[in-house]
Amino acid sequence: MVTCLVYLSSHLQKRKRAITARRQHLKSVMLQIAANLQEKEAAAREAEKANYLAEHCPPLSIPHSMQELQDLCRKLHAKIEVVDEERYDIEAKLQKTTKELEDLSQKLFDLRGKFKRPPLRRVRMSADAMLRALLGSKHKVCMDLRANLKQVKKEDTEKEKDLRDVGDWRKNIEEKSGMEGRKKMFETSES
Questions:
Q1: How many CB atoms lie within 10 A of CB 185?
Q2: Which letter does DSSP use for residue 153 in this model?
Q3: Which of 65, 91, 100, 169 measures 20 to 30 Å from 110, CA to CA?
Q4: Could you tell me if 139 and 131 are in contact, meaning their C-beta atoms sit under 8 angstroms apart?
Q5: Average pLDDT estimate for 142-150
Q6: C-alpha span between 1 and 9 (Å, rounded)
Q7: Which candidate, 35, 79, 78, places its Cα nearest to that of 57?
Q8: Of 149, 154, 101, nearest to 127 (Cα)?
Q9: By C-alpha distance, which of 157, 153, 156, 127 is closest to 142?
């Protein structure tokens, strides 16, 4: 029985080694393929760059006379102006589209109803300290909010006095219920 277990364990170890070796082999093959693809892409980019430069930037022939040099400078300045105008237009379009994107994303957040609120910390600060922070240290403003409050005395109105004099509301309802109560109400409304 023990020999059987030893045989099985050695067989499993050999199998695991074979699987690990296969994985490593596949990994190395994939890395070789990726390296070849990167080299091909780099060569393609270089060829594309060379084609673009040959197409858009012809070789510079420097003239020998002063008049030809001035003409060449004028042509170069004209090309620079055209490129600057295109760059300016593209920058303006970019700013416009980024502004539109910001507006649309804000509308999207508004429609969803979810706003990112930053975590706020509770800060203990007096009103004077707040004003100093807002207005700067030059402004000496003292603001005692409690000193500015007015004290108001509450005067009793006639309606409130009547309500206090009436007393218990159940008594009033009992007095007004039945025919006698309706008669009293009728008599008081006539006079």
A1: 12
A2: P
A3: 91
A4: yes
A5: 63
A6: 12
A7: 79
A8: 149
A9: 127
pTM (2 d.p.): 0.30
Q: Tokens 């296969």 correspond to what residue?
A: 22
User: Residue 179 — very low, low, confident or very high, per pLDDT cuts 50/70/90?
Assistant: low
Q: Residue 74, exposed/middle/buried by CB under 10 A (0-12, 13-18, 19+)?
A: exposed
Q: How many angstroms separate the CA atoms of 159 and 165, rounded? A: 10
Q: What is the largest CA-CA distance in the chain?
A: 130
Phi-psi region of 172 (alpha: psi -120 to 50; beta: other; left: phi over 0): alpha
Residue 159 corresponds to which tokens in the numbers above? 């309606």
Residues 80-115 pLDDT 10s = 999 999 999 999 999 999 999 999 988 887 777 766
Structure tokens at 41: 């892409």
DSSP state of 1: -
Neighbours of 189 (CB within 10 A): 7
Task: Name the amino acid, one letter, at 190.
Answer: E
Assign 113 to helix, strand or coil. coil
In sequence order, the 6+-apart residues with CB closer than 8 A to the CB of 139 are 131, 132
**What average pLDDT is seen over the chain?**
77
Q: How far is CA 171 from CA 14, 166, 174, 177, 181, in A?
A: 103, 9, 5, 10, 12
